Amino acid sequence: MASWSLYFLVEILRCASLLCLLCLDDMACVVYGAQEITLPVTSLFPSPICKASTSNANSTLKLVHKNSPCSPLFNGEPVNHTQLLLEDIARVKWIRSKISGASAANSLKDSAVSITAKYGAGGGSYLATIGLGTPKKDLTLLFDTGSALTWTQCEPCAVSCYSQAEPIFDPSQSSSYANISCSAPSCTQLPSGTARPSRCSGSTCVYATGYGDQESFTVGFFATETLTLSSTDAITSFEFGCGQNNGGRFKGFAGLFGLARDWISFLEQSATKYGRYFSYCLPPSTSSTGYLTFGMGSMTSASASFTPISMVSQSSLFYGIDITGISVGGKPLSIPSTVFSNVGSVIDSGTTVTQLPPTAYSALRSAFRQAMSNYRMSAPASPFDTCYDLSGSTMVTVPVITFSFRGPIDVQLDPSGVLFPVTQSQMCLAFSSTGDETAFGIYGNIQQRSFEVVYDVPGGRIGFRAKGCS
Ligand SMILES: *[C@@H]1O[C@H](CO)[C@@H](O)[C@H](O)[C@H]1NC(C)=O
Ligand SMILES: *[C@@H]1O[C@H](CO)[C@@H](O)[C@H](O)[C@H]1NC(C)=O
Ligand SMILES: *[C@@H]1O[C@H](CO)[C@@H](O)[C@H](O)[C@H]1NC(C)=O
Predict the structure, then answer these.
(1) pLDDT tens-place string over residues 226-266
(2) Looking at the record's lineage, which domain of life comes first (predicted)?
């Protein structure tokens, strides 16, 4: 403790002339300089113990990482970066197929593509527990801004259900369940959100949708139910998928909670109540919790910086954002602005690692490596190629990375959005390249950590508020 105090004293003196903020919060103490951040190496590793935060807002759900000790479904496994790579490849391939048409998905230049069939895109990394039915049953769903339909596995699992941690939802035990008829307008409009034609079973509407290379899928009855967020907030007659044939890499989760831009999304179905506003904070570490909250009332958008939502060609499902530049250690990288503007980017809750055009990624990587030249590089840990062995260090100093978006706004990433812990001593630069200058970028969930990300859909803008989880 004595050496720590000394350390901080030195730090305070060293950066007294810079913009410095000292947050003396046990081990998570961080020193912010203008161009670099110094923090304890241990603060970058998730703890095996859950530090859950609580919320008293009525329209708020807790968000937890799927590998979090705070998850009701935690199985003790840490985040596996190989698994993460495979899931991201499947996810990106799926998003590309939606944006550019199926043929473009095949242009993904990665030798690992051939094995992605085994790793469905799933739906991302963060979980929220909702209530469904009357009386309500709690179901833990993957939260996904990239897909529209909310669905859960349903009894009697007429064809097949995978195993999930919570009891499978049984519509016969709920007084508020109703099938949607084939002739209902919502049945005929369904394909805009599922990308598959709807069908009939008797007079009941049947939906189908797939993720990744069709390995992850769900087919079932399109139905209405009461969806409960909290003791005071519920959406009645919420249209959802009651899955009778489900498969793929959903790993114990009861289904998916869809927030993409489509009429079938929770966003639209709750529009009269919440006005198409939502925000979330992904926790800086898997050992803490974040939140997903709906409606403008519960937002602190006044202190957020906003960038316009841009249109993504051929798919209105995704939330497009325009990256205009990146700086490392306060110095803007010399990346021609056309590198970003020619292709565009989407912000996604389900892709883990931000994917940049190759020109942008290599500029970021070389500036980062230069700033980190005091540290010993270690072997790459795919998908990461810039990794450091920090086993001899108690503190690490990393350059500040700032993303600029159309607005213009500058978003200074949290350290948890820059370094990814691979092992107890190995840290990697948490970005990757799309591998193709013509492929659009994806602003992934690691880089969103610790910000409140505000989706003001009627205002056509997305905002970022630093230190947004508390
Ligand atoms: C939650 O809803 C109840 C009943 O409508 C209301 O009295 C209370 O103020 C709400 N709480 C919050 C934090 O909005
Ligand atoms: C990580 O995931 C990969 C791919 O699923 C698997 O082959 C490997 O055994 C996993 N590693 C650990 C340590 O669980
Ligand atoms: C919903 O439709 C399916 C298929 O037609 C039928 O088996 C089931 O009993 C219906 N459920 C209700 C509650 O109407």
Answers:
(1) 999 999 999 999 999 999 999 887 778 999 999 999 999 99
(2) Eukaryota
Which residue's CA is the nearest one to ligand 1's atom 4? Answer: 232
Report d(CA 43, CA 415) in Å as an integer.
Answer: 10
CA distance 164 to 255: 9
Superfamily holding 304-465: Acid Proteases (2.40.70.10)
> Catalytic residues, which ones?
144, 348
For the chain, percent of residues with pLDDT exceeding 90: 60
Distances (CA, A) of 20 to 33, 64, 404: 5, 31, 22
Cα angle 179-181-186, degrees, rounded to a multiple of 5: 100
- Structure tokens given for 79: 């985040």
Q: What is the dihedral of CA 362, 363, 367, 370, to 10 degrees?
A: 50
440 touches 344 (CB < 8 A)? yes
**For ligand 1, mutation pick of 54, 56, 58 (most atoms within 8 Å of CB):** 58
- The band of 123, judged by pLDDT with boundaries at 50, 70 and 90, is low
* Cα-to-centroid distance, 204 and ligand 3 (Å): 7
Cβ–ligand 2 contact at 80 (below 6 Å): yes
> In which element (H, E) is residue 157 found?
none
Q: What is the Cα–Cα distance from 88 to 350, expressed in whole angstroms?
A: 8
CATH of domain 60-294: 2.40.70.10
Ligand 3 contacts CB of residue 221 (under 6 A): yes
Ligand 1 atom 13: the closest Cα is on which residue?
A: 57
Q: Which atom of ligand 1 is nearest to the CA of 56?
A: 13
Return the ligand 2 atom nearest residue 83 CA: 2
- Decide: 234 in ligand 1 pocket, CB within 6 A: no
Question: How many whole angstroms from 232 Cα to the centroid of ligand 1?
Answer: 7
- Which residue is closest in CA terms to ligand 3's atom 14? 179
CA of 76 to the centre of ligand 2 (A): 14
Residues 6+ apart with CB under 8 A from 420: 81, 353, 384, 427, 428, 429, 430, 446
